[in-house]
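Morning. Coffee machine broken again, so started the prediction first thing and wrote up yesterday's gels while waiting. Chain of 208 residues, entered below exactly as on the submission form.
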Amino acid sequence: MNMKRFGLLVAVPLALLVGCGEADELKTTATDTEEVTEAVASSPEEATAEDTDVQQSELGTNKIYMKNKEVTITETMGPIQFAIDKVQTSRLTVAEAYSDSFDGQEEVTVVAMNMIVENTVDETMSFHPNQATLVTNTGEQVSSDLWFSDDVGGEFMGKVKKEGNVLFFVKAKPEELTDLKVVIDGPFNENFDKVAEERYEYTINVTK
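Came back before lunch.
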């Protein structure tokens, strides 16, 4: 079943799940006002929880497997400065109420990557790292989930900087993952002309 039907009702609990509880770590945010305010206000203990290996939320139980806050992927893509500086894998046991949004899967592995994107020129650029593709060493190929990911893509109208998590859901267990290949299409300008390479690929080691 399409995840979109749940909208921000799912996005907000997941923001608390993968947030790690630390301001400088992997965090997701939702941007809608009314639903977000209500959801955050109803879960202050989760929103302020300190770093923990197991996190609870409406979505279920999320057990962090590994996290690396020292990823050093940086790239100059024409006028765009791009970086991935954090990665985290975890295993989510899905609450029954949210089973349909994960196509009936009782458990899924969450891969979260913190991406930083900056346009260094006044001209509007378009770049969509939040629509990346993930290829795992276990043979899965999945697209990032736009509904759960932060808004770190789209138009960059001038010297704009965006940062946030891009999330992927895979079937393999976290301990089965060793190397993840991330594939991202390059940026383009207002005339839809490429301003850098057409495609970029990065490999991230996620062994514990």
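The helical segments are 7-17, 34-42, 44-47. Going to sketch it on the whiteboard this afternoon.
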